Amino acid sequence: MTRDSLNVLILAGGRGSRLRPVVSDRPKPMALINGRPFLDILMSYLGNFGFYRFILCVGYMADFIQGYYAGPNGGKAREIAFSRESSPLGTGGALKNAEPLITSASFLIVNGDSFCSVDLHRFIAFHREKESLVSMVVAHAEEEKDFGSVTLDPLSRIAGFQEKDSPASGWINAGIYLFEKSVLSRIPPNTVYSLEQDLFPNLGTHDFYGFPTTEKLIDFGTPKRFAEAQRVLLL
């Protein structure tokens, strides 16, 4: 498993309802951050690590995203495929829907509305060292109660999750994962299915590890955090 052989799935199908007061003319992953669509920023960052095959899981305003990347904006240095949902399937359902397009035995997943400048070389090495089925980047957050938190055991295995407003563990889900493709057999087809609520709680700790990072998680899902992203996300 090398970074240049791994597919990257970007979850870009959400409606972004909370962001509508400031971004209403486009899907949330295409929100302009200092004049650039966020997906451009995200894929350029990932490209710096050698990733070049991207599968965009699209749903809401999918034509906007596909139209943008079908032309010159797709770029010559990357390959882009689209997995389109006719109705919302949730984060897990979106992955299952994209399964026929995945060409690597392991693949990276990133949320299309958040950014964390984690060292992905180290993350891949961690996943391989642990022989993990699923690995998740976990980060610190200034507003833990707004995100919920993740508990790690001394071996970096994910031991549990706390809901929003529960006592915080100090770690949150950064929305960046490495999966072995075999995991997809656990997700039913054509079904609304959540990674966070349906898949992750049922993974055994021997298969599920958390990779801690001190890098800041930038999530622009609300107007307040969108304004903050304009100030700090200058890539």
What labels describe this entry?
single chain, 235 residues, alpha/beta, Spore Coat Polysaccharide Biosynthesis Protein SpsA, Chain A, seven-stranded mixed beta sheet, two-stranded antiparallel ribbon, 7 helices, 13 strands, 25% helix
Q: What can you see in these coordinates?
A:
- The protein is globular and about 45 Å long.
- The strands form 4 sheets. A 7-stranded mixed beta sheet has the order 5-4-1-6-11-8-12, sandwiched between helices. A two-stranded antiparallel ribbon has the order 2-3.
- With 235 residues, the chain is of the alpha/beta class.
- Helix content is 25%, strand content 27%.
- 41% of the residues are buried.
- The protein has one domain: Spore Coat Polysaccharide Biosynthesis Protein SpsA, Chain A, CATH 3.90.550.
CATH class reads Alpha Beta
Q: Can you count the beta strands?
A: 13
Computed structural class: alpha/beta
The largest pleated sheet is described as: 7 strands, mixed
CATH superfamily annotation:
Spore Coat Polysaccharide Biosynthesis Protein SpsA, Chain A
Task: Report the order of strands and helices.
Answer: EEEHEHEHEEHEHEEEHEEH
Apparent shape:
globular
What is the CATH third-level topology name? Answer: Spore Coat Polysaccharide Biosynthesis Protein SpsA, Chain A
Helical stretch tally? 7
Mind telling me which CATH architecture this is? Answer: Alpha-Beta Complex
Task: State the gist of this model.
The chain has helices at 38-47, 62-70, 90-98, 120-130, 144-147, 195-199, 223-232, and strands at 7-12, 32-33, 36-37, 53-58, 79-84, 106-111, 114-116, 134-139, 149-152, 158-162, 172-180, 208-213, 217-219.
